Amino acid sequence: MSSNHGFKRLALAISDTSKAAETAKELEGMHDWVPVEEADALVVLGGDGFMLHTLHAMLDSGRLIPTYGINRGTVGFLMNKYRAGVKLLDKINRSRSIGISPLRMEAITQTGETVVENAINEVSLLRETRQTAKLEVSVDERVRIKELVGDGVLVATPAGSTAYNLSANGPILPLDSQLLALTPISAFRPRRWRGAILPDRSTIRFKVNEPAKRPVAAVADQKEIRDIAEVSIEIAPDKELTLLFDPGHSLDERIVAEQFVV
């Protein structure tokens, strides 16, 4: 939705690139910046990778505030274009807000340790050695594939469906679709299975077959847990993040547009 959000206190997060540093210098005198702990909204200077890093830091801290990204990287799928000389506070207050809920991954390792991580884009299960992974796939406590053989599998959110999921020939999901993409990675068997589109209320569970011989790692965005035995994945609605976009440059429009890139 778009409106006057009424933000007054802005914080600034700057990636470690020269382009981001130069832009930060230009913005210094445009606003009285405050620490992120005191801010109504956060301005992020960088690319998609730094935006994901920043959002994960907020998830880890438990303090979730609206985030407005300015592209000082390359693709900038999650970012807005930088326009010099524009009153940034007014622009942010007129922005459109998009809510995205991350995935909650609970991984159990071969030693019995339980690790919980959040993923904004996707959770991937990947073979650790030259041996193919063998995975049992269950959805809502029902086994759907007894043994998926290949390089791995991933579960992507709509926001992440244009990232690794798309590279693995998975579907692009509209942001408001309330769906998840379950996509195999270089599957050898079953050969004809190309993945599934699931309601985002689903719980997806993977069990590693022959884990000692065929070790598998789980990766929640950039966070990797090795030698897993089992992984459970579901949406975490209580950790919804809010991204702010300029009118006409919202994330849902970019997801639609990506399907017409040739």
Report on the structure:
By secondary structure, the chain is α+β, with helices and mostly antiparallel strands. It contains five helices and 16 strands. It has helices spanning 18-27, 48-61, 88-93, 164-167, 251-258; strands spanning 10-14, 41-46, 67-71, 96-100, 103-109, 114-119, 122-127, 133-139, 142-156, 179-189, 196-199, 204-208, 216-220, 223-225, 228-235, 241-245. The strands form two sheets. Strands 5, 6, 7, 8, 9, 10, 11, 12, 13, 14 and 15 form an eleven-stranded antiparallel sheet that branches. A five-stranded mixed sheet has the order 1-2-3-16-4. A hairpin with a 2-residue loop joins β8 (133-139) and β9. The longest helix is centred in the first third of the chain and has 14 residues, at 48-61. The radius of gyration is 20 Å and the shape is elongated. The model has no long low-confidence stretch (mean pLDDT 93).
- Backbone shape: elongated
Strand elements, count: 16
Q: How many helices in DSSP terms?
A: 5
Structural class: alpha+beta
Distance between the amino and carboxyl termini: 30 Å
Quaternary structure annotation: single chain
Task: Give the percentage of residues in beta strands.
Answer: 35-45%
What is the helix content? 10-25%
- pLDDT < 50 runs, ≥5 residues: none
Main beta sheet: strand number and arrangement? 11 strands, antiparallel
Rg to the nearest angstrom?
20 Å
List the helices and strands in order: EHEHEHEEEEEEHEEEEEEEH
**What is the average per-residue confidence, as pLDDT, rounded to a whole number?**
93
